[in-house]
Amino acid sequence: MRLAKYLAHAGVSSRRAAQEIIAAGRVRVAGEVVRDPAFAVGEDASVQLDGRPLGGPEPRVAYAVHKPLGVVSTARDTHGRATVVELVPDPGARLYPVGRLDADSSGLIVLTNDGALAQRLTHPSFEVPRTYRVSVAGPPLQARALRALREGVALEDGLTAPARARRLGPHELELTLREGRNRQVRRMCAAVGHPVSALQRTAFGLLRLGRLRPGASRRLSAAELQGLREL
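The structure assignment produced for this chain is given below.
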């Protein structure tokens, strides 16, 4: 593992900031100052920062969070708004959200410090499904609108992939996507004549929102983490 990555995984800083720390000569490996961020170290290496031993990479964890309305899906917010990271009672882990939910949307979001897991869940090639419960305005939902959602909708950034759409009521549907464009659900529904009035993500891969209340979180089990990695 590269030294900069080791420091980042140990919770010292971001990888970019770790490069600056190393270049400043603040890091020792086996008692020797190392200034090369690409220096290879093992997980059991003796690494010190400013004379303080580091305990090695922090454990890989992930949380399911029920994001309430008004909370932003970022680790930090320059406008002082509440963030999803603040909803998880784990001060020892440097968590970041996987995927996004708009501030005016609610529901299931995953927080983790596992970059490989985040890549697997969000990269388009893996097509991890996300399911939403959507309330819409306009006339009652008809078969034509559902058929358009299932076949793909022409948006300004191209035709969407086929979605799974199920009518739940005159103005409510369940929509499952396998791609993650910006505000995609809202744009798709608007394109078929049904602007979104409320949006909640109810499932992400094999994870379900279930009875998790708004603002609550739970740590994922080892079996859930393994299942997500195998998607």
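Interim note for the steering committee: The helical segments are 3-9, 15-23, 115-122, 143-151, 184-191, 222-229. The two ends are 26 Å apart (CA to CA).
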